Amino acid sequence: MDCGEGMQRQFLSMGLGLNRKTTIAITHLHGDHVIGILGLLQTMALSQRTLPVTIIGPSKLKDWLEFTFETIGIGLTFDLNFIYAKEGIVLNEKEYSIKCIRTVHSTESYGYLFAEKERPGRFYPEKALELGVPEGRKWSILQHGRPVFVRGKKILPSMVMGKKRAGRKIGYSGDTRPAERLVKFYTCSDVLIFDSTFSFKDRRRAEERMHSTSYEAALLAKRARVGMLILTHFSARYRSVLPLLKEARSIFPNTVAAKDGMVLEIPQKE
Ligand SMILES: [Zn+2]
What we know:
By secondary structure, the protein is α/β, with parallel strands linked by helices. The protein is built from 11 helices and 12 strands. The chain has 3 domains: 1-85, no CATH class; 86-119 and 165-270, Ribonuclease Z/Hydroxyacylglutathione hydrolase-like (Metallo-beta-lactamase, Chain A); 125-159, no CATH class. The chain is 32% helix and 21% strand. Zinc ion is lined by residues 28, 30, 105, 175.
């Protein structure tokens, strides 16, 4: 989500493969969110990528990329599959979906919600054996959600499996003022990554520049009952982000400040 300057270097240093299934979601066309896509796509081409790349973003992103590639003569070795950002579900895959919402910023800008689909419930072998289903192919059929027959008796997946397990949800705001509709959109996300450009004392500036303060990010996270808040996009005016983090934690304790290369594990739900 978003490609700041030097994105390809970060991408490589994190050990992310250049020829893997990739979807890039861009929130808006301000340099610090989009400039890095050029280097990333060019690096992918240099490594002879063949898989298409899906790009989600404002419609002008496509024009800008096509114009730039043509002007500076970057030839890609793979196709770009563009999806115009608009409110609602923009990408629906077997295992997850990506949803958009318009945010409140100085240009056309979108927030994203990455939502994993429900997973099947836990499989209980002892229940299967009790019902006379022998271990093997029939177990696998049940685990895939289809019934099996044992001596003429129909065994349903629900008889040997627990309830479906909810998928994980990750929200990403890009640049925005806080807004009521964003509270609703990000409700019950496991992780919310939110604009935290300014501190409380610079709240006027946050209003003018159409960003959020760490305090506002925390209020929104609390009202949306998210699991964890990650503050990001700090203004370069702050030597340390600690005061911003403290402000946010006074409202929403489970807050962390993002930093380059940070890795977080989000456990699956049982
Ligand atoms: Zn911006």
